[in-house]
Amino acid sequence: MDFTKNAKAFLRDLPLPKMTGHQKFLAVAALLSNGKTNVEVPTSQIQAHWLKSVLGAAYNAAFYDRAQREGWVNSVADKKGTLCVTDAGLENLVALVPDITPGDLKKSGSLMIVNRKATHTFDKFLRQTLAAAKTQVLIADSWVDDTIFDTVLDVIPPSNTIKLIFAQDRGTFDAKAKRFVQQYPKFAAKRYKHLHDRFMIVDDVGYVLGPSIKDAASNSPALVIVLAQKEKTLLQSFFNDLWTAAKDA
């Protein structure tokens, strides 16, 4: 992400139609801070640099409060209306515009194919998708380990409901889950021993995943199928049934 670009060029690199108002607020704040977390930014400057014609929405002071609640900006003590962008804010913003090597990910219609060994590309795709979540993230994955929290889940806005169903876990998954929920209070995980397939639902979009998230594209190409609305509705109903039958992790 190039913070040296002018405002219009920088903002047009972002997936603005998919972004919330407080993500757009974060983007302008990050641009004014040059992508640094130790630079103080007055909200008056964010408002002054708010390009409604590019951002597609008028400035709203509530965006500041929402960005704070997500942990993306912190207010500066004794300086009313002044903030600093946080590491979590920058991670969410960067995840929205992944730098994917050409050819590592191929897409046609509702099908995506990630090349064998392009594991980082698969993670970037997941992070981009999850960073843009507005209300909910539901994930079903037969095998999980502790890396899922740092590779993909940590870019989800904390205001989202996050539910994870799994069959087997490895590593220090339980310990990491307990720490993760302290910062993401709407996170919950359950175990369903008969789970085999992998899929996720992000807001109103369903995705069928070929491999488990922890080793996607490691040894084989990875497939992702994006579902139409009717299929997504059925998939969410299926997830809800699994969630009811599953046991607390």
Largest β-sheet summary: 9 strands, mixed
Would you tell me the structural class of the helices and strands?
Answer: alpha+beta
Count the domains.
2
Which shape, going by the Cα principal axes? globular
Overall mean pLDDT? 93
CATH superfamily of the largest domain: Endonuclease Chain A
What fraction of the residues are assigned to beta strands by DSSP?
Answer: 15-25%
Under CATH at level 1, the class of the largest domain stands as: Alpha Beta
Number of helices: 10
Helicity level: 25-40%
Description:
- With 249 residues, this protein is an alpha+beta fold.
- It has 2 domains: 89 residues, Arc Repressor Mutant, subunit A, CATH 1.10.10.10; 144 residues, Endonuclease Chain A (Endonuclease, Chain A).
- It has 10 helices and 12 strands.
- It has a 9-stranded mixed sheet with strand order 4-5-11-10-9-6-7-8-12, sandwiched between helices.
- Strand 7, helix 9 and strand 8 form a beta-alpha-beta unit.
- The chain is globular.
- The protein starts with 6 loop residues before the first helix and ends with a strand.
